[in-house]
Write a structure and sequence with these properties.
By secondary structure, this protein is an alpha/beta fold. It has 18 helices and 17 strands. The chain has helices spanning 2-8, 60-73, 130-142, 184-196, 235-246, 265-268, 287-303, 319-323, 325-334, 338-355, 365-370, 388-394, 404-407, 416-421, 431-435, 454-458, 461-470, 484-496, and strands spanning 13-15, 31-34, 37-48, 90-98, 113-117, 123-127, 144-147, 152-158, 160-164, 170-176, 201-205, 251-255, 308-310, 359-363, 378-382, 398-401, 437-444. The strands form two sheets. It has a nine-stranded mixed sheet with strand order 1-2-9-5-6-4-3-8-7, covered by helices on one side. The chain has an eight-stranded parallel sheet with strand order 12-11-10-17-16-15-14-13. The two termini are 46 Å apart. The model is unreliable at 1-13 (pLDDT under 50).
Length: 521
């Protein structure tokens, strides 16, 4: 009878795109109903998995549950004991039922979930995979608050029913560890914050012309191109980052950018340079360059298990090839000019990647210059402008959207409203072609960020894009101002969790303009 009486007093509201004023979940779920009651989280809140097929040998679910409790409590001392209040007002545990036995994290994994919060018990039904369950835990953490008056954890607006799944399978964030080294703890904090926003791919732009910080066992002199010995990642460090990300439902996309952006490779192996005075692109005439790429990708395949590898291919200036005598001679013998040699290099690197079981992502210049010759397993990474994706999918290739005028985080004059409004399917109306857009990615290029400012440059603008990539199109706000309060709440939630998310107002990475509440900045 207590159960029935409690339900009778709840007013249940079904939420649509115009009725979210009282909802503080980010990104917005696809179907939500909530009530008007309150429950307390038991001080002995437990995880139950009876009926679940998932064994959790690696502890992915259990560790996620413990992390969830930690971020809900937010380091507060929970002074009050829930045994002292009416048991009918206490939520005692969480019941997770997962259909799949597997913990494989891969592109296209089912990330859907259903979260139901009636009195006294919680059910996730169904969560096809553990990674859907992880998203459900993130959503649950956002509807729990520490109540300063009662000194307990409160769940407002019960009962809840949330049915949710992502709009796109690829929801990424790029970090650049070549322009500035990012310590492993910093990368882990970025991964944690990605999980809060339901982003699921960390695009690790590991190396570039400035530095080569990663150990490659097959070619140990490559990391001679690092800034210093203390600014390096061991192969085990990289494996740990991949494992850490997997436990939070995040794939790691590794990138080596060839043939351009590779001057640092020649510090350890100078023969990769066309000449000592003309050091990139990699020497197309040198067979060793392709042997080395093969060795790198062979090593990568041992730890980077994501379906894709990123091979770069952007901003290739071939003038060093045509001005270096031995490369010029090779070009003439091979019947190539600079542009043809650029194509030759990219396509050969693609074949090497395919031989290691990877599908390929390349920056859009490869498509713009020789798109018809790219492997059909290529994903074209759009960055230069917003009119490329329609051309890519019309050609039958997949596309990943990161147009710099909207989704480059290092462009501090790209405001959060720009990030929210950027639509990956703009001017793509054919349903088959729409399916070829695998998602999008915000890019945190590293020229002006290091461990001191990376978080506030990423957040909260990346969260605006995260909702665009997660929430179904018909649920998205047509005017970004409609989500301002909810995004501000999420930004303050990030702060409460120790993430240095900047205020919404002003340029990216801005500072508070004056004293005041977080929720008004």
């Amino acid at each position: 009878m207590k159960f029935l009486r409690l339900l009778i007093c709840f007013l249940v509201v079904s939420v649509d795109a115009t009725d979210i004023e009282n909802l503080n979940i980010w990104p917005l779920p696809n179907a939500v109903s909530y009530g008007s009651g309150d429950l307390y989280l038991s001080h002995n809140f437990v995880l139950k998995t009876k009926g679940s097929k998932f064994i959790d040998d690696a502890g992915i679910l259990k560790s996620a549950f413990l992390r969830t409790i930690g971020i809900i409590e937010a380091d507060h001392i929970i002074e009050a004991n829930t045994s002292e209040i009416d048991p009918a007002l206490v939520l005692k545990g969480i019941h997770v039922v997962i259909d799949s036995l597997s913990d494989e994290l891969q592109y296209g994994v089912d990330e859907s979930y259903k979260l139901s919060i009636p009195p006294q018990v919680i059910n996730f039904l169904p969560a096809p995979t553990v990674y859907g369950a992880l998203h459900a835990l993130q959503t649950f953490s956002q509807i729990c608050v520490y109540d300063i008056i009662s000194r307990r954890i409160l769940i407002h607006q019960v009962p809840w029913t949330i049915i949710d799944q992502p709009r796109f399978p690829f929801r990424g964030l790029l970090i650049d560890t070549s322009r500035h080294y990012q310590p492993v703890p910093v990368i882990k904090k970025v991964i944690d914050s990605m999980a809060y926003a339901k982003l699921n791919v960390l695009h690790w732009h590991i190396v570039d012309e400035e530095s080569f910080p990663l150990e490659v066992p097959s070619y140990p002199k490559l990391w001679d191109g690092s800034y210093s010995k203390s600014e390096r990642y061991t192969f085990s460090d990289a494996a740990e980052i991949v494992s850490y990300a997997k436990n939070r439902g995040i794939n790691v996309l590794a990138e080596i950018d060839v043939p351009g952006h590779a001057r640092s490779w020649g510090v350890g192996y100078p023969s990769l340079w066309p000449s000592p005075n003309c050091q990139e692109p990699l020497d197309v005439s040198n067979e060793f360059a392709f042997e080395l790429i093969n060795g790198i990708l062979s090593d990568f395949s041992k730890i980077f298990k994501y379906k894709f590898v990123h091979l770069g291919g952007d901003e290739v200036d071939t003038s060093c090839w045509v001005t270096s005598p031995h490369v010029k001679a090779w070009l003439e013998k091979s019947g190539m000019n600079g542009p043809r040699a650029y194509q030759y290099f990219v396509l050969r690197a693609q074949q090497i990647a395919l031989s290691h079981g990877y599908e390929i992502i390349n920056w859009e210049e490869t498509f713009n210059n020789f798109g018809a010759n790219l492997s059909k397993k290529t994903v074209v990474h759009n960055w230069l402008g917003s009119n490329v994706a329609p051309k890519v999918v019309k050609a039958g290739l997949r596309c990943l959207v990161s147009n710099q005028d909207k989704w480059y985080l290092d462009h501090l004059d790209n405001f959060w409203q720009d990030f929210y409004s950027n639509e990956p399917l703009t001017n793509i109306t054919n349903p088959h072609e729409q399916e070829l857009v695998i998602g999008g990615e915000v890019c945190m290029w590293g020229e002006h960020v290091d461990g001191s400012d990376i978080e506030q440059t990423i957040w909260p603008r990346a969260a605006a894009a995260a909702e665009r990539l997660w929430t179904s199109y018909d649920k998205l706000a047509k005017n970004p101002e409609q989500v301002r309060n909810r995004l501000s709440y999420f930004r303050c939630l990030l702060n409460l969790r120790g993430v240095a998310a900047a205020p919404l107002e002003g340029f990216g990475r801005t500072v508070p303009s004056e004293p005041g509440s977080c929720y008004l900045q």
